[in-house]
Automatic annotation (TrEMBL), chain A:
Entry keyword annotation includes Nuclease: no
The protein's name: ATP-binding protein
Spans annotated as Disordered: 556-598
Organism: Microvirga terricola
One Pfam family this sequence matches: DUF87
From TrEMBL, chain B:
Lineage: Bacteria, Pseudomonadati, Pseudomonadota, Alphaproteobacteria, Hyphomicrobiales
Domain NurA: 82-384
Alphabetized InterPro entries for the sequence: NurA_domain
Name of the protein in its database record: DNA double-strand break repair nuclease NurA
Pfam families associated with the record: NurA
């Protein structure tokens, strides 16, 4: 079983230079190993009873091609004089490949059924052979020969389709996973992969989905083995305990209030009756009513209220109400577009009183947040997560342990540098991520801008899946947060193709380069990437509207622009939008369609 | 080969200016500055001009300067199917406490221009020696000697010559071989009393001959044997020297020959020689002033062991052998305008346009460095890499430690540990309180 460590066919190079217990370098035979490959080299290690044979395992983290015999000067002369390299005495064959290996650990030679990695206490020997282990050996190594753990299959080793890479389920669902990559790197595909594996073991999943990336789970629920996929739209409702969040949301969304205005706002809140479960919109309407009541002397505050203060607060509340309203409308419009494609949304149940409708084994709950702005999305997330977490933290078993997926995590847990530390979900997530492992409330954080994430939250993730990253800021940040990412690993991040990455942390035995499986059967047929090029090409102006405009222009010719003389006469110049909108003002869009065409 | 016309004065002046701006004559000027009162730089420049005029006149009117054309587009295709070899030795630079390691390897690079595939190039370590020169039980020398540097030099010189010899013996089809450095080295420095002989095994490795007497295994006779072997085989081999070692042996020989052939009278020769002596300018520096790109001086046989006036300095014990060393047929070739001429040495009777053309064309592949690229390649190959040096050091320390632990003497052990673990300022070396 360990014969391969001596076999010439598997020998891919020779150790050279200085070797330590962390790294070594070897001269690689051409075409016999690639970046990311797992390699092994035999060595003798001193033990209590003489030396014993061990295998040192490592991962190729760099390959350099060196042709020390070809001076640049010569290259220039060749091209200038138009001479064929082969006709000269220059050497063409002596380039060699130098591979750098990061040591993963050592195993005892004999012990092949249970390849447990132990720390390397003795360096490899220069001149020792380096070997490419057979798939079976790597497989045993990757799993530690331990087959009792529940595994989530992620993909295969890069360049070795014959070696599977899996994550330990238990470490993901309670110890958190961060998936980081630039846009298009394959984050969503990777997340879908992991979630699919989790649904196969009926693990409850809650997804905060700002773009509808996961809606396809609903369409493909049959492919997922008949999983119960629920699509929820958020109704922002106020219950006693979250009124604080709503007040914060109102305060942040609305106009900036002066101190007296803030005081007045507090009074208004105090004087408004809150029915648990009312929508935020209705609650705000109530607040506005309270404003009026207080202004008209209905309040028993005693102080004479400044009418300006009252109006400012009212205007701000009104603004928030309209903003919320328009966001809800957006959300509804987006859902309406999906309806003909068979998507059915229901309102998100109250996470406080009906958490088990959201979290349940065998169920994926997708909370569709499209249409809302970041602040509101964050407030919604905060409320949902807070309540669900509270149920777990009370240890009442009202709900099962569950995993929350946060896409676009940088909007929910922004770093301090972003100047948005009062984002409502920040504190909630911080709490969940530090205590989650006690209560079984794991998080999967997904982001394309890691550098914008809160550092302490990210560093609480015990496993990382990092795919293609190019931005130096992001790479540096990721390096600073992930303890065991070597410099050479950080350097290859930018070379990854879609779906290729490094997985490291507690979910794997050591960092691995992985080619993630692409579940093509989970790609939605109904929702595709929008083809804006085609849309722009196909767009044409509404003929009816054009017609009406021309009629209006004919009947009421547009006024010529005001001359400077009129201005000087002290008259206000007409507002520009008056002339601008002249064409449309006369027409009523709703009735216009009924007009017979000319 | 065509003889060239006398240099116009402007050309010489221009060349001097560039050389001065490159700092070539710095040392000469500084040397003169102490002795002379007048404006040194001024008179130096004038002197250079005059010298160039003098030498150029001598050499060109005597038809001693010829030119080699650089025509790479014609030259290289014409070499198809030939086989060239390049040899160079590398010495590991290792400093070790209490040891004098000797680590030499001589690399060979063989190449067939115009060929494709696996048999185009061969790289080989043609000769190598690893030893500790302090160790009484040595593999290379049969005894120790106080001047370690000399032992190393001698070993490198003889190993390179031995490698040339064995390469010709092994690969029969070599059209020309270039070696980095002189083809024939002065040997007197290694004839000092007490300079040890090579061991039987080392000698056999070097000249492929067993059973040599103690005397014959000494550097001087052994080196002589190897060089003669090489020469007698008719090997086309040239030593190419890039470093200006100083001295005017070549020009002196030119003047001698001119006198001999009645081209110059003795009185003028002395005047000329004194004039040339003034700023201690070397052969390379002087010829650099007058040679144009591709030009070379007609080769001249030079005794590298010294002229008749130097023979009294030969060690008595080896006089006979030293007198038998082959002469070095020497020329200076300037590969390109801004590169100092290379000294090229061959055996008498083997110098040819062909060999010089190879030197020129391979040097031009490194236009700025101006040195045969094949020698550059083999230099990189033979160079003992740094990491190997370090490894020799580590291996050696371990060996020493092992030996120390094998003794019963506790003090020896203690001392060894202290020595080996000490870095420059180590607490171990501080006096005990
Ligand atoms: N494992 C994979 N195998 C093959 N192709 C993949 C893989 N992962 C991603 N891709 C390709 O890359 C595309 C983008 O992937 P994905 O949507 O997961 O990227 P993303 O990182 O989520 O991007 P965004 O930041 O825009 O959401 C996919 O549509 C697919 O074509
Ligand atoms: Mg995505």
């Amino acid at each position: 079983m360990t014969d391969w460590i001596k076999s010439n066919e598997r020998r891919i190079g020779t150790v050279v230079g200085d070797a330590s217990t962390d790294t070594y370098t070897f001269i690689l035979k051409s075409f016999s190993a690639k970046l990311g490959d797992i390699v092994a080299t035999p060595t003798d290690v001193p033990g209590h009873a003489g030396t014993y044979g061990a295998i040192i395992w490592g991962r190729v983290v760099g390959i350099n091609r060196v042709n020390p015999f070809f001076p640049a000067e010569a290259a220039q002369e060749l091209s200038e004089q138009d001479i064929n390299l082969l006709d000269t005495v220059l050497s063409t064959t002596r380039d060699y490949l130098q591979a750098e290996v990061l040591i993963l650990g050592a195993t005892k030679n004999m012990d092949v059924t249970n390849l447990r990695l132990s720390p390397v206490t003795y360096p490899v020997k220069p001149s020792a052979g380096v070997f490419s282990p057979p798939a079976e050996a790597i497989r045993v190594l990757l799993t530690g020969g331990d087959n009792n753990q529940v595994k989530l299959r992620l993909g295969t080793l890069i360049g070795r389709k014959d070696v599977d890479v899996s994550l330990q389920a238990n470490k993901i669902v309670s110890r958190h996973l961060a998936i980081l990559a630039m846009t298009g790197g394959g984050k969503t595909v990777a997340a879908r992969r992991v979630l699919r594996e989790l649904t196969a073991i009926n693990y409850p999943i809650v997804i905060l989905d700002p773009h509808g990336d996961y809606l396809a789970f609903f369409e493909k629920r049959r492919e997922l083995g008949g999983v119960d996929v629920k699509l929820f739209y958020p109704a922002i409702r106020v219950y006693g305990s979250d009124s604080g969040v709503i007040e914060e949301l109102i305060a942040k969304m609305g106009h900036r209030l002066t101190d007296p205005q803030k005081d007045f706002f507090q009074t208004v809140v105090a004087q408004t009756n809150l029915e648990p479960g009312m929508t935020a919109e209705r609650y705000i309407a109530e607040l506005i009513t309270t404003c009026g009541r207080l202004r008209d002397g209905g309040g028993n505050g005693g102080d004479r209220l400044n009418a300006l203060t009252v109006n400012a607060v009212r205007r701000s509340l009104d603004f928030v109400r309209r903003a919320l309203n328009s966001m809800q409308t957006n959300n509804e419009r987006l859902m309406a577009q999906l309806k003909p494609k068979g998507y059915a949304f229901t309102e998100l149940p109250d996470p406080q009183t009906s958490p088990d409708e959201i979290v349940r084994p065998g169920r994926i709950s997708i909370i569709y947040l499209a249409g809302f702005d970041h602040l509101t999305q964050s407030a919604i997330a905060s409320i949902v997560i807070e309540h669900l977490f509270a149920h777990r933290a009370k240890l009442t078993d009202r709900i099962a342990p569950f995993l929350t997926v946060i896409e676009e995590a940088h909007n929910f847990v922004p770093g301090r540098r972003e100047g948005t530390e009062d984002t409502p979900s920040l504190a909630t997530v911080r709490k969940v991520i530090t205590e989650g492992r006690k209560f079984g409330t794991g998080l999967m954080l997904i982001s394309q801008r890691p550098a914008r994430l809160d550092e302490t939250i990210l560093s609480q993730c015990n496993s990382f899946l990092v795919l293609r990253l190019v931005n130096p800021k992001d790479k540096n940040f990721v390096r600073s947060v992930m303890e065991n990412l070597s410099e050479s690993d950080a350097n290859i991040l930018q070379t990854f193709g879609p779906g290729q990455g490094i997985v490291s942390g507690q979910a794997v035995r050591f960092p691995l380069l992985v080619d993630i499986d692409f579940d093509e059967d989970l790609v939605s047929e109904a929702i595709g990437d929008e083809d804006f090029v085609k849309k722009a090409k196909d767009w044409s102006p509404d003929p009816v509207r054009e017609e009406i405009a021309s009629i209006v222009d004919e009947v009421i010719p547009p006024e010529p622009p005001a001359s400077p003389a009129t201005k000087r006469a002290g008259k206000r110049a007409p507002l520009p939008d008056v002339t601008f909108n002249a064409g449309t003002r006369g027409g009523k869009p709703n009735g216009a369609g009924k007009r017979p065409r000319a | 080969m065509a003889f060239e016309d006398t240099l116009p004065e402007e050309e010489v002046q221009h060349r001097i200016e560039t050389r001065v701006s490159l700092g070539h004559f710095m040392a000469n000027i500084l040397r003169a500055a102490g002795a002379e009162k007048a404006d040194v730089q001024q008179s130096f420049a004038k002197h250079l001009c005059d010298t160039a005029k003098l030498l150029d006149g001598f050499l060109r009117s005597d038809g001693r300067i010829a030119r080699m054309d650089y025509l790479p587009g014609k030259y290289w295709p014409a070499q198809r199917g030939r086989r060239f070899a390049f040899i160079d030795g590398g010495v590991a630079n290792v400093a070790l406490p209490g040891a004098a390691p000797l680590a030499i390897r001589v690399g060979a690079y063989l190449v067939r221009p115009g060929r494709e595939g696996a048999d185009r190039e061969d790289f080989a370590v043609q000769m190598h020696f690893v030893d500790d020169l302090y160790d009484p039980a040595q593999d290379v020398y049969d005894n120790d000697f106080e001047d370690i540097a000399k032992l190393r030099d001698a070993a490198r010189i003889i190993a390179e010559a031995g490698a040339c010899r064995s390469l010709f013996e092994e690969a029969g089809d070599i059209d020309a071989l270039l070696i980095q450095g002189p083809l024939i080295n002065p040997v007197s420095p290694y004839g000092t009393p007490g300079f040890p002989a090579y061991t039987a095994s080392a000698s056999e490795k070097l000249c492929r001959q067993a059973g040599l007497s103690d005397r014959d295994r000494h550097f001087i006779p052994l080196y002589l044997r190897i060089l003669r072997d090489l020469r007698d085989r008719g090997s086309i081999v040239a030593g190419v020297v890039e470093r200006d070692g100083g001295g005017r042996r070549f020009i002196k020989n030119v003047l001698d020959q001119m006198v001999e052939r009645g081209k110059l009278d003795n009185a003028r020769r002395t005047r000329a020689e004194n004039f040339l002596k003034k700023y201690s300018l070397s052969d390379t520096q002087l010829l650099d002033l007058i040679l144009r790109e591709g030009e070379y001086v007609l080769p001249l046989a030079i005794n590298r062991q010294g002229g008749p006036d130097e023979q009294n300095k030969w060690p008595k014990k080896w006089e006979n052998e030293i007198g038998q060393f082959p002469l070095a047929l020497t020329t200076f070739l300037k590969p390109s305008e801004n590169v100092q001429p290379l000294r090229v040495e061959t055996f008498e009777g083997t110098a040819s346009d062909d060999l010089l053309s190879l030197v020129l064309h391979t040097s031009r592949l490194l236009p700025r460095y101006g040195f045969p690229v094949g020698l550059d390649v083999v230099d990189r190959f033979a160079k003992v890499p740094d990491w190997m040096g370090r490894q020799i050091a580590t291996g050696h320390k371990v060996n020493l430690l092992r030996k120390a632990f094998a003794t019963d003497n506790e003090k020896v052990r203690d001392f060894s540990i202290r020595m080996l673990s000490a870095s420059g300022r180590d607490w171990l070396y501080r006096p005990k309180i």
